[in-house]
Amino acid sequence: MIAPDELEALLLDILEHYGYDFTGYSRASLTRRVHAFFVKERFKNYAAFRERMLESNIYFIHFVEEVTVNVTEMFRDPGFYKTLRENILPVLATYPFIRIWHAGCSTGEEVYSMAIILKEAGLLQKSLLYATDLNQRVLEKAKAGIFPMSQMRLNSENYLHSGGRQEFSGYYTANYNFARFDKSLSDKMVFSTHNLVSDSSFNEFQLILCRNVLIYFDRELQARVLQLFDRSLDSLGFLALGSKESLKFSAIAPYYSQIENKEKIWRKKR
């Protein structure tokens, strides 16, 4: 197994060689995932692991794909999407154009969920959804808009619990074991790699969603990412985080007010 000092040395090597900064990630979670990768790939020792990582860009991308967390589903936490429908979209409807950023979008289920509720609210045509992630492979899956049919029953149940009133199956075409979602949804999406650790703000948004990503960062990195979101958010814009994440005690907390329910959504003060 990799010793703690070897892991730290590896993270610095990765930062210097590839520009990917994992040094601010929560050590407990990152250590588990790197150890699992090390065992799965059957390395005999740390030296062999380090050499392989630094000599092959392709292998490094494989490493990134394996150790970054990509767990999601459509309309995950239906109450959250019900709140978006009832409390947030009516406000966004007052804007002439709506820009939404899904930071850490993974394979894209949440982006398609957003596109669906925007379409049902009559807002999709004046919206643009930016979907970003560190992992290029999951972005390619998200852009394709093809998901396993085995997930559609759960997705449909989540959709109904979120306040959906249409036939969920009307949003996709079934093809053997996969469901291809309607192109009218993905036409309003822009997919791009973006590193929350090192990349800068690239637009001004009315809504930013970054759910269940910050929990994998240490406090210092969380603070940096929240500052990035603050710089990227329009005055009176909304910031949505995961159920175990919060703005509380952060430097930007005084400039935001949480909407009045249990969901982790804040509005930026004027």
Please explain how this structure is put together.
It is a single chain. Helix content is 42%, strand content 19%. It is of the alpha/beta class. The protein has 2 domains: 4-67, no CATH class; 78-268, 3-Layer(aba) Sandwich (Rossmann fold), CATH 3.40.50. α1 (4-18) packs parallel to α3 (46-55), α3 packs across α4 and α5 packs across α6 (109-120). The longest helix has 15 residues, at 4-18. The model has no long low-confidence stretch (mean pLDDT 93).
Using brief descriptors, characterize the structure shown.
single chain; 270 residues; alpha/beta; Rossmann fold; 2 domains; 7-stranded mixed sheet; 10 helices; 10 strands
Name of the CATH homologous superfamily of the largest domain? Vaccinia Virus protein VP39
Write down the CATH class of the largest domain. Alpha Beta
For the largest beta-sheet, the strand count, sense and barrel status come to: 7 strands, mixed
Got a strand count? 10
Strand order, largest beta sheet: 6-2-1-7-8-10-9
How far apart are the termini? Answer: 51 Å
CATH architecture name of the largest domain: 3-Layer(aba) Sandwich
Round the mean pLDDT to the nearest integer and report it: 93
Assign the structural class, choosing from mainly alpha, mainly beta, alpha/beta, alpha+beta, or little secondary structure.
alpha/beta
Query: How many structural domains can be distinguished in the coordinates?
Result: 2
Low-pLDDT residue spans:
none
Topology record:
Layout: H1 4-18, H2 27-40, H3 46-55, H4 57-67, H5 78-92, E1 98-103, H6 109-120, E2 127-133, H7 136-144, E3 146-148, H8 152-161, E4 172-175, E5 178-181, H9 183-186, E6 189-193, E7 205-210, H10 219-232, E8 233-241, E9 256-258, E10 265-268
Parallel strand pairs: 1-2, 1-7, 2-6, 7-8
Antiparallel strand pairs: 3-5, 4-5, 8-10, 9-10
Helix pairs in contact: 1-3, 3-4, 5-6
